[in-house]
Specification:
66 residues; 3 strands; alpha+beta; three-stranded antiparallel beta sheet
C-alpha cells in the first residue's frame, strides 16, 4: 500500500519496500512521472495504481487547504 504524509514544505511517499521525501512543489512532477510509467509500461498492470492514487489524494488535500 502507498501512503503519503506532508508538512509545510515536503511530502513523504511510503511503500512497503521504500520511502522518499520530496519538496511539495515537486508533487506534480512525481504524479506525472508515475502516470507516464503506467502508460509506457502497460505490462506493469496495476503496479503504479496505489502510488498514483496516494499522490492524487495528497494533491486533492493540498488543493482543499488553499
Amino acid at each position: 500500500m502507498a501512503t503519503t504524509t506532508h508538512d509545510e514544505s515536503t511530502f513523504t511517499l511510503r511503500k512497503r519496500e521504500w520511502h522518499g521525501t520530496y519538496p511539495l512543489e515537486d508533487l506534480p512532477k512525481w504524479l506525472a512521472f508515475y502516470r507516464k510509467m503506467k502508460r509506457e509500461f502497460p505490462k506493469s498492470g496495476s503496479a503504479y495504481d496505489e502510488t498514483i492514487a496516494a499522490l492524487e489524494k495528497l494533491e486533492a488535500e493540498l488543493a482543499a487547504m488553499r
